[in-house]
Write a structure and sequence with these properties.
- There is one protein chain.
- The protein has 121 residues and is mostly beta strands.
- It is built from no helices and eleven strands.
- The protein is globular and about 40 Å long.
């Protein structure tokens, strides 16, 4: 069993930065994905990192602005978000799953409770 806890969300102005953390307990070295869900919209893929950290994948709308990394010694995955835009406003979720999970929500086995990110214009 794996438990995931996200932190680091908040209210910021457009152009600001935030760093989200996803702390895992239990079995680690799963691949991790970050997803987000805005009000009235479906949950969407944001970024993925493999268990070793050697492979990452980004949604086009965050390329060049967001960076994912992980510290397996601390069982934590980080999402550095720069140049935030109002359209980045959403609840951000981290999820753990097999290497093959990548962008597919249904392939992830474990989910955190989410952290709210609000970007004002």
């Amino acid at each position: 069993q794996v438990q995931l806890v996200e932190s680091g969300g908040g209210l910021v102005q457009a152009g600001s930065s935030l760093r989200l953390s996803c702390a895992a307990s239990g079995r680690t070295f799963y691949a991790v994905g970050w997803f987000r869900q805005a009000p009235g919209k479906e949950r969407e893929f944001v970024v993925y990192i493999s268990g070793s950290g050697s492979t990452t994948r980004y949604a086009d709308f965050v390329k060049g602005r967001f960076t994912i990394s992980r510290n397996n010694a601390k069982n934590t995955v980080y999402l550095q978000m720069n140049s935030l835009k109002p359209e980045d406003t959403a609840v951000y979720y981290c999820a753990a799953g097999p290497t093959s999970a990548v962008v597919t929500t249904e392939n992830y086995n474990y989910w955190g409770q989410g952290t709210q990110v609000t970007v004002s214009s």
